[in-house]
Amino acid sequence: MKTIKNVTRRAALTLAAGAMTVGFGLMASTSMAAAEALKVAAIYTLPVEQQWISRIHKALNAAAERGDIEYVFSENVANTDYERVMREYAEQGKGLIVGEVFGLERAARKVAKDYPETAFLMGSSFGAVAPNFSVFDNWIHEPSYLSGMIAGATTESNVIGMVGGYAIPEVNRLMHAFMDGAREVNPEVKFIVNFIDSWYDPPKAKESAFAMMDAGADIMYAERFGVSDAAVERGVKAVGNVIDTSGDYPGTILASALWHMEATIDKAIANVKAGSFEAADYGQYSFMSYGGGSLVLDEALVSTEIVEQVRSKEADILDGLFRVNVNDARPVSDN
Q1: Do the domain assignments include residue 335?
Q2: How many domains does the chain have?
Q3: In angstroms, rounded to a whole number, what is the distance separating the alpha carbons of residues 181 and 151?
Q4: Same domain for 154 and 69
Q5: Domain boundary among 136, 153, 173
Q6: Between the chain's N and C termini, which has fewer beta carbons within 10 Å?
Q7: 154 and 248: one domain?
Q8: Nearest alpha-carbon partner for 206 in 218, 192, 220, 216
Q9: What is the mean pLDDT of residues 90-108?
Q10: pTM for the complete prediction?
Q11: Neighbours of 171 (CB within 10 A)
């Protein structure tokens, strides 16, 4: 387990002991408490460089740089160690503990129940539980739909390959949204779908992508690392997910559906500081209207006509005039 700590500056209040009254002392004590940065810990099962986790880490670092929190984290924590690390942070008096609990829901919720005064904000496929266990997710189905429109309009073979990690709701809904967007502009498009059953196995993802290209795919949906590398080698285009990798793969990434965790993290921090944190689903703060999701595209690779069509649909989403369907079922390849 690797732990790194970013210590933020605090406001220092210096009072002359002989000069202050009891009332002034109480007010000063209250001011100091309000000015203190919230102590936050995060627990990650993968390296902070992994795309999904990197977005949480980025948002927490931003809050630490502003002086809102003191932030420590543990990465590469095995599922068997996760409960222990949660308890250690709770015992240390952290005010907010953030992480992802896919695959260890029962253990995490048991810890939260044992520390009712600690706020927990966890990536989860399930619901919040009173009084202190809140959940979040990367609800970026909206920009995923828009990126699908770009892919559907760009493909020449009418075959798109899709490589995912695990077939869980968080992944499934993004894939389905992408597929729906592609079909809106191109009813003839077909999909080849595969899950590699790993969150981080670039060689396996790359191998799966090659197989899809051999079957005719000329655009790849890169839900996992490794897919875009395959696209570069074969000279086909790719669509990114969660983070913008266009700088790493110039001329290859048509568009990416981005996740911005800042809105979720900032809301949780504000609620803890205000003493109003309670069990809730923070998923809505990943929606585009909250700034939690966005689309980035390479206009040098996408026709002006489709850019205009996508931007129009984006405006409809933001204005509440179009709602992207949410489908958590496992996506499958077209026959």
Answers
A1: no
A2: 2
A3: 8
A4: no
A5: 136
A6: C
A7: yes
A8: 220
A9: 95
A10: 0.84
A11: 22
Per-residue pLDDT tens digits for 180-234:
999 999 999 999 999 999 988 999 999 999 999 999 999 999 989 999 999 999 9
Residue type at 214 in one-letter notation: D
Helix intervals (H) in the chain:
22-35, 51-66, 79-91, 105-114, 141-154, 169-185, 202-214, 227-234, 262-274, 304-318
pLDDT score, position 18: 35
pLDDT of residue 330 exceeding 80? yes
Rounded to whole angstroms, the Cα distance separating 155 from 182 reads 10
Q: Is the pLDDT of residue 31 over 50?
A: no
Determine the angle formed by the axes of helices 105-114 and 79-91, rounding to 10 degrees: 10
CA distances from 327 to 46, 177, 331, 334 (A): 27, 8, 9, 16
Let me know if 88 is exposed, middle or buried by CB neighbors in 10 A (0-12, 13-18, 19+): middle
Residues facing residue 255 across a β-bridge? 239, 297
Which of these, 73, 66, 101, lies nearest to 89 by C-alpha position?
A: 73
Distance CA 282, CA 215 (A): 40
Strand 69-75 to strand 2-6: parallel, antiparallel, or no bridges (unpaired)? antiparallel
Average pLDDT over the chain, rounded to an integer: 90
The tokens of 126 are what? 């399930």
What is the per-residue pLDDT for 107? 94
Distance CA 64, CA 86 (A): 20
Residue 331 DSSP SS3: coil
Tell me how far apart the alpha carbons of residues 205 and 166 are, in angstroms, rounded to a whole number.
12
Q: Can you give the pLDDT at residue 36? A: 78
Q: How far apart are CA 113 and CA 64, in angstroms?
A: 27
Compute CA 21 distance to the chain's CA centroid, rounded to the nearest angstrom.
49
Residues 305 and 298: their CA atoms lie apart, in Å, by 13
Residues contacting residue 328 through CB under 8 Å, at least 6 positions apart: 169, 172, 173
Nearest to 41 by CA among 18, 19, 64: 64
Q: Are residues 155 and 304 in the same domain?
A: yes
